[in-house]
What we know:
The protein is an alpha/beta fold. 25% of the residues lie in helices and 30% in strands. It is built from 9 helices and 21 strands.
Amino acid sequence: MKIKPNKPPLKSGETIKLDIERLNHDGEGVGRLSGFTVFVPATAPGDSVMARVISVQKTYARALLETVINASPARVTPSCAHYDSCGGCQLQHLDYAEQLRVKREIVQESLRRIGGLNINVQPVIGMIDPWRYRNKAQVPVGMDGGTVIAGFFAKRSHRIVDVECCLLQHPANDKVVDIIRGLLRETGISAYNEKEHSGLLRHVLARTSFNSGETLVVLVTNGRRIPNKDMLVAALSAKIENLTGIVQNINTRRGNVILGNEEVTLWGKPYLTECLDGLTFRVSPRSFYQVNTVQTEVLYKKIREYSSLSGSETVIDLYCGIGTISLYLSRYTASVIGVESVPAAIEDAKTNAILNGLENVKFHTGLAEKLVPEMQKSGLHADVVVVDPPRKGCEQSLLDAIVAMQPNRLIYVSCNPSTLARDLKYLTIKGLIVQDVQPVDMFPHTSHVECVVLIKRK
Ligand code: SAH
């Protein structure tokens, strides 16, 4: 039996020697000092390091890497020059095979520790080329002295790191940010100041299709009036190749939420057209679309495989976004019902059904945890249920309604192993069985892990 020390065996400010055993779900190294857990970012399993303790809590401490005494063989030199300061990536110092091994371990560990599930997690499906995979850039804009900067937030902060080239982005998105950064300097349009809630341009959002190469630009502004607007729009439309539209999104609220509710089309179309497995999707600025186009196909293929459709089933696709999974599966089954809370996404989903000539799909706007219990009570049965919730996972009222519907298969797509583990624990208590867990690497070089899980009835 492990004995936990009563008092932490270290103090803030102290430098300690530590062997790193594994990574936690934030991608930070985990080591133990006399049994006491210490987290050290930017380390690798197998490293021996000297680290300076920066905070001590009841059950764990945090420390910053000072020197690597013995390096893990999986360590590599990060490809990005901004890796040390930018908060976007956490795993660039590990070779890609090690990143995949670590992600599998993170999932396995969450399922065991939070879910009480001792289940063999499949090896993570990685990318052949794990760079430049993101179709969307969402970049905060600010000032540094007198200069406009645009990039990413620094690790654990809201300080902007000026990044001109992100190796995870489609190159066209990098270019858009670069052009806008230059134009702000020329037009005198002010950048947003988060502290003072002043200045105009808050975020630049660029989405580029990996299929057509089209780009949609969204300018998120703290206010309606854009000085020198015509000049800005003319310059953007002239400089950005394959531009499909420029949209202004107005967000005058304080806080972290990036997009506001009001939009004005400044040029072209207010949406991007994406293609996936022969289907066409319209994506508008406020709709969710998976950021890794290549791996989305891999993920959806797995969902189809798990759903074992014979052609006669009723499928419910919860948290359906713009209807991608619904429409993907509708080609192999009798009928699909999609549920999603964002009205703009449901509008996209309905358009997408028409664009693809798929008539066996119905979409409903609302909260899954409210609509599905009502559907279940009114007698709706589903053979297959797919859930793909945001990071916070599913509410119990939703899981109860799904269990009551008695589907043959439940497929849980998750971007957060912790809430996945919590929800799987609840479902197993209710009598369901976790059959297979397949992680798919949608976010190489970051600590994020996506999983698709097949759950069955006893
Ligand atoms: N399945 C889709 C989208 C998944 S992202 C795809 O693969 O593209 C999660 C989606 O859930 C987002 O579109 C978000 O708007 C939606 N959402 C968030 N909370 C919700 C809730 N309580 N009920 C229904 N939808 C919700």
